[in-house]
Fold this sequence. Notes:
Elements: E1 4-5, E2 14-19, E3 32-35, E4 40-44, E5 49-51, H1 68-77, E6 85-86, E7 101-102, E8 105-108, E9 111-120, E10 179-180, E11 188-196, E12 206-214, H2 216-222, E13 239-240, E14 243-250, E15 260-262, E16 265-266, E17 276-284, E18 294-304, E19 309-310, E20 320-321, E21 334-342, E22 354-360
Amino acid sequence: MSPLFVGPANSTNKFLGNLSSDPGSGNAEGDLYFNTTDNVLKEYDGSAWNNVNKPGPGESQSTAIESDTQAALWASKNSNPGYPWVKISGIDGGNGSGNAFQIFSEYTDSKLFCLAGRFAGGDNAASNSGANKIRWSVCRNPNLTSSGNQNDWGSGTHVFNNTLDFSTGSDATDAGKSARTALWNHSTSKTLFKFLNLDQSGSGDLVYNMSNTESWSTRMKTRGYGGGTDYGQNDTAVRTGSVLASSVSQGTKEGSNMNNIYAGTTDGESASAGSNDVFMIMFDADAGFSGTDSTGMGWKRSGFDSQWPRVDGNGGTTPTFDTSNNNSDSGNNYYGVVAQNSSNGDMRNVSNGIITMLVEVY
């Protein structure tokens, strides 16, 4: 085809149409053509052909990722995991429902996963749930939303550290920064778990196939023992909630202790006992809560009032935030965010441990 001359009268600039490679002669500075091999528009600068800069998927607000296909293109050209722009139907990431926003993400297992929750073992900062409790504090009933009973496990719309890029810099390894995003309430059938400074870290990330397609808030509100309204189950016996997942589509479990994810477990001791052990989410081989092989998020070894951990049950004070690091059990009346190698009677905090949960979004 004949070239199309562009610009003012007598201009020598040409648009050469679609070509599979750079033209080698007859070029003028400012000439353009579309390279069908690389699928990019190219411009001649007087000595060489260069790509015309255009943001790819996820690289700008106007080119936000809206599908796994676009996510694959983003991952092929950018750091993965990373901090792309995404657009997810029904999700308000801070710019209005359904609008583009940036979030810590990873493309793996042919899917884009975006941050829903981050559990940092050294984080005792107050959640902005409104209950004046630490982030990811154990609670008895995730369904409660009345004043003073709001929590991080249910369907509250509050967020914290949701705009941080946990893929790079000091934030990536900061065990003092938990996070909760709008995607805690996003229905999903797969969850990517990333582990730092934990036994599973040596074996890598795990993508679990969830037993039910639903949000994490729904799981926590309905899948705990007896329907999810009482994670304490005081004055009973060891009780464990439903299996949330047992199979992985990607990754290698470091042992059978990672076989199942449960919606909480408790030793069922009295609410006034300083040794009532509770996990809100637990990885374990079985529901026995024995064998010092349980890993979990949101834990306590203390009494319980109607909603929160207490030293002596109702009327008691808040337990001590555990700052130990995978040592033997610290004793009664402690609580924390991440623990591993634990069991009934032996809760072992990991102050530098981090478990990050990213959910499938398309």
